[in-house]
């Protein structure tokens, strides 16, 4: 039986998770923003599509959500509930986004008319094998979220699973609506999948598996982009704080590669 090679990782060289403030950029001429905790995207969606609605009233966006997590958390406070805590202060969308948490910003986006449908595309091997995609929202454009006792939650039968082969058919129903692309970098490297992250030693075979997984997810991302319409806004989450979902020693590299692939697709 062979002895598996172990590679020592020096702790002093490891980069720990730190908060990075939002940064506005352009990707192939498309406005984009890179945030840290994922819920920060809500304020940028709110401001961007509030402006859009002034020019095209009633046109809600279609969200393409590429993430290792659905972020469809419910029972989040409505703006009305939030304002009760503000006393004499006015509405601050950035402060409201903070209380939604990293997994609860999509439900309010539906409720306040920012999006009409959401396509959740995850790198889950089972989903990829079965070639299925989760779709949230109704094809008739009615709001899939309701307010109950000051909290927001989905109505029944809001989510359905479709075959990827029927994606184009579904997208035809959304023709003419603005597209919003939201990418969490844990789509490429989810820290929970890198279960030996933080250990001092990692086997050579495990390192090889990591790189294979990362390359496979880049390829899947590129293939997915080829099927989707060009977005009017791109948001990217680094997901370092308050919970670190993306390995901190790779997040800068993954962010740069993601932007590179998006640029190749839309330039």
Our measurement of the CA-to-CA distance between the termini, rounded to an integer number of angstroms, reads 52 Å
Helix content: 25-40%
Mean pLDDT: 88
Number of strands: 13
Overall body shape: globular
Oligomer: single chain
Radius of gyration: 19 Å
Spatial order of the strands forming the largest sheet: 2-3-13-11-4-6-7-10
Q: What percentage of the residues does DSSP assign to strands (E)? A: 15-25%
Helix run count:
8
Q: What class would the helix/strand composition place it in?
A: alpha/beta
Could you describe the 3D structure shown?
It contains eight helices and 13 strands. The chain has one domain (6-266). Strands 2-3-13-11-4-6-7-10 form an eight-stranded mixed sheet, with helices on both faces. Strands 5-9-8 form a three-stranded antiparallel sheet. Strands 1-12 form a two-stranded antiparallel ribbon. Strand 8 and strand 9 form a beta hairpin. It has helices at residues 41-55, 79-83, 93-100, 106-111, 125-130, 167-173, 204-225, 251-266; strands at residues 6-8, 23-27, 30-35, 61-66, 76-77, 115-121, 132-136, 145-148, 151-154, 159-163, 179-184, 201-203, 233-237.
Fill in the keyword field for this structure.
single chain; 8 helices; 32% helix; alpha/beta; 267 residues; 3-stranded antiparallel β-sheet
Short description:
This protein has 267 residues and is of the alpha/beta class.
SSE blueprint and pairings:
Elements: E1 6-8, E2 23-27, E3 30-35, H1 41-55, E4 61-66, E5 76-77, H2 79-83, H3 93-100, H4 106-111, E6 115-121, H5 125-130, E7 132-136, E8 145-148, E9 151-154, E10 159-163, H6 167-173, E11 179-184, E12 201-203, H7 204-225, E13 233-237, H8 251-266
Parallel strand pairs: 3-13, 4-6, 4-11, 11-13
Antiparallel strand pairs: 1-12, 2-3, 5-9, 6-7, 7-10, 8-9
């Amino acid at each position: 039986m062979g002895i598996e090679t172990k590679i020592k990782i020096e702790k002093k060289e490891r980069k720990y998770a730190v908060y990075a403030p939002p940064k506005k950029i352009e990707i192939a001429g498309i406005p984009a923003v890179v945030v840290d905790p994922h819920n920060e995207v809500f304020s940028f969606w709110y401001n961007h599509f509030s402006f859009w609605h002034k020019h095209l009233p009633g046109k809600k966006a279609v969200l393409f959500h590429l993430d290792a997590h659905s972020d469809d958390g419910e029972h989040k406070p409505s703006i009305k509930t939030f304002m009760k805590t503000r006393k004499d202060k006015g509405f601050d969308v950035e402060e409201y986004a903070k209380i939604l948490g990293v997994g609860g910003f999509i439900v309010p986006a539906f409720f306040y008319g920012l999006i009409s449908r959401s396509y959740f595309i995850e790198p889950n091997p089972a989903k990829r094998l079965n070639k299925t995609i989760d779709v949230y929202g109704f094809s008739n454009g009615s709001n899939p979220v309701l307010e109950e006792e000051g909290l927001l939650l989905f109505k029944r039968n809001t989510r359905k699973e479709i075959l990827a082969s029927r994606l184009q058919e579904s997208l035809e129903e959304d023709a003419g609506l603005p597209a919003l692309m939201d990418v969490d970098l844990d789509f490429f490297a989810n820290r929970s999948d890198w279960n030996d992250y933080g250990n001092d030693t990692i086997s050579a075979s495990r390192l090889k598996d990591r790189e294979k997984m990362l390359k496979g997810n880049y390829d899947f991302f590129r293939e997915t982009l080829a099927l989707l319409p060009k977005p009017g806004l791109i948001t990217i989450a680094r997901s370092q704080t308050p919970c670190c979902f993306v390995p901190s020693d790779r997040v800068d590299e993954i962010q740069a590669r993601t932007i590179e692939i998006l640029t190749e697709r839309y330039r």
